[in-house]
Amino acid sequence: MPHDMKDNTVTGDIKVMGQKIRYAFFGPEDADRTLLVFNGIGASLDAVAPVAGYFERTRILTFDVPGVGGSPTPLIPYRFVWLSRMTARLLDALGVGEVDVAGVSWGGAAAQQFVYDHQSRCRSMTLCATSAGMVMIPGNVQVLRKMATPKRYMDPDHMMNIGPDIYGGQLRYNREMLDMHASSLKAGDARGYFYQLLCGIGWTSWLWLPQIEVPALLLMGGDDPLIPVVNGKILMKRLPDAQMVVMDCGHLFILSKPGETAQRIEAFIHDGVVLDAEEFEDEPAVPA
């Protein structure tokens, strides 16, 4: 069950490289590991709260990328290299040194770039439902088209209509879970979403993945319409020290299986263990 995070949650705004950034810490302040989380496209830091409540030994740090949630949209588009540099400055400003790094979907690309650029301050890398960018096997074309607009983040009814097709897994039939996801999001503007799309155009980690030496855990959804499991296999073949687990879920297993996701990541970053495929008792509820 998730723990009560009210007394351990810290949110704030800080200016980094001329950009105001909204950030949040979740979990125990005295934890000896900090997990830096990069969110999926269009998702604000509020989307991390459900899974953050299941971590017991880890401090979670996440933030709204420019153009999402509480971080204003910049005047010009940006690339993952710029976002990586800005994130390093954010850590410096917050007094955070070494981190474990995790990224979800679009955020998985940002996580790879950050680890590559700042490997000396990274202890591990966990990639959730992501790929190597342009060198990938795409999911269903009709589903990908629905991702081209931020409407699902701004219109809860639209999210309820297309969410089952986009995310797969338990979200195909669990309307309550999908509604919980929709209500937790705080959209930015359409330009900010477009900048995130532009950020990924032409980007790939495939060439330099062999240079990433930190241990990596790859979590993929077995029923993911957006990023099929084969993309995890591509990443695993290129990374020198990587292990992969296929979750019995779709794209958003951090929402539908938050307990299992947190347990797997914590066992990996704290103990260097990849848990066996066993039964996890896991209730997809937003922590109190």
Rg on CA atoms, Å: 17 Å
Residue fraction in strands = 15-25%
CATH fourth-tier homologous superfamily: Alpha/Beta hydrolase fold, catalytic domain
* Tally of contiguous helical segments: 11
Order of strands, main sheet, comes to 1-2-4-3-5-6-7-8
Total beta strand runs: 8
In angstroms, what separates the terminal alpha carbons?
11 Å
Structural write-up:
By secondary structure, this protein is of the alpha/beta class. It has one domain (6-271): 3-Layer(aba) Sandwich (Rossmann fold). The protein has 11 helices and 8 strands. It has an 8-stranded mixed β-sheet with strand order 1-2-4-3-5-6-7-8, with helices on both faces. Helix 2 packs across helix 3 (106-117) and helix 6 (156-167) crosses helix 7 (175-184).
Could you name the key traits of this structure?
single chain, 288 residues, alpha/beta, Rossmann fold, eight-stranded mixed beta sheet, 8 strands, globular
Please summarize what this structure is.
The chain has 288 residues and is α/β, with parallel strands linked by helices. It has eleven helices and eight strands. The protein has an eight-stranded mixed β-sheet, sandwiched between helices.
Secondary structure elements and their pairing?
Blueprint: E1 10-16, E2 19-26, E3 33-38, H1 49-52, E4 58-63, H2 80-94, E5 99-104, H3 106-117, E6 122-128, H4 141-146, H5 151-154, H6 156-167, H7 175-184, H8 190-200, E7 216-221, H9 230-238, E8 242-247, H10 253-256, H11 258-271
Parallel strand pairs: 3-4, 3-5, 5-6, 6-7, 7-8
Antiparallel strand pairs: 1-2, 2-4
Helix pairs in contact: 2-3, 6-7
